[in-house]
Amino acid sequence: MDQNSNENTENNADNAANSVNAANAANAADANNAGTATAKTGETDNFNPKAVVAIIAGMIVCLILGTAGNAILPEWVVSFFAAAVEISPFVILAILAYASKKYDGLKIITTIWLLLLILGMAFVTFAMGLIAVLPADTVAGMTQAANSGVMTEEASMEIMKSMEGQIGAIVGLFFGVVIAGLLALTAQIRAVRVWISRYIPIDPDSFVHKTALTVILAIIFIFAVPLIATGQPPLTSPNGITILSDSPAMSEGIMVNVYSLFWMIFGSMLIAGLFVSKTAAQVCERLGLRMPTAKEFALAIGVGVALVIVFHFIDTAISMFCKFAGLTLTDNAAVNKLFSPYLTPFAAILAAISAGFGEEIGVRGLLQERFGILIPTALFAMLHAFQYNWDGVLSVFFAGFIFAILRKYYHTTFTAISHSIYDLILFYMIIYGITI
Description:
The chain is mainly α. It has three domains: about 20-45; about 85-245, no CATH class; about 290-435, no CATH class. The protein has helices spanning about 1-45, 50-70, 75-85, 90-100, 105-135, 135-150, 155-165, 165-185, 190-195, 205-225, 225-230, 240-245, 250, 255-270, 280-285, 295-325, 330-340, 345-370, 375-380, 390-410, 410-430. Helix 16 (about 295-325) packs across helix 21 and helix 20 packs antiparallel against helix 21. The longest helix is centred in the N-terminal third of the chain and has 42 residues, at about 1-45. It is globular, with a radius of gyration of 27 Å.
């Protein structure tokens, strides 16, 4: 009897303990769910829907005025808004993606805009590739038709005839941009993002990260196509130089740099959340923009100077490798023509600051924290693929890798100073004919 009583007592104690454990587990689960809900809510606590509407509307206005404002606006105003055309579509994409955290229905609109953006990049890249391979007379006729809005049947026949001799390159360009776009869209597959998240700190279930990764890969893959298909960078091809020589970007080189710097910095700040969810101080912290100490400032200048010497040897090694691999080297004379508006002492300063601060804020500052070192560095390199051949692209990649390491251990302002000094010295070496 005593034994049964003891057993009953033990069983009751066990049941009571299990009940307590179950209750604790339930409470813990409730607390965890509440915490998760609070965290998700906290992500959009500071969300400003009015800012979203204003920014998107403003970017659309910039796109319209930058592409079709010649008839009603002064040329310098059109140039100002034209400088925004390159960054505006990405600002709109980022704002839509972020807003979809609060308004789930925006995910469809964001995805459609993403697809349109990829199609637009593919079309522009295909067109730029055509410019590099078609005969000069054909390109001139296409340019004239585009400016006038009229394409005669005779001009169409001439264009089709000239394309017959470049059918291989044209087919390569077409299928190249298609394949590149499809490769970029693999980032929409969760399994791919899970694999990538092993190496960079992205959330494979984040719609914002999914969208950003897709567009970054699209730029990397699509911009590589002209070099792969034609072996020639479009902007420094003979046709590219001819077209650019008549463009406002060449005739107003100094001011275009000022406009580009403004839009790159302002656009990066908008993408980072300015007005939508963050203050200017928070955005600067997010982008790694800090006031350097005197020691950091001096060191950043020293690094920029040292990189000029270091890359003399790196570029020599890259050129030797490319020659061995049978790759065409960058036409330095064509590059100098491309940069000719900036080859005055004052213009070189503005160009160096524009490239240094604009690229560092837009690439290292905005992307490196989330996407690591290699992906933003590859993006940085391919952004130069329209003006350099593979030797130049590889050189830019290694330079970007070094700037990324500096960004990791210092801050974006440090790398921007180093980058600007590096570019400024290179510009001055071209201006004054200095070689190492």
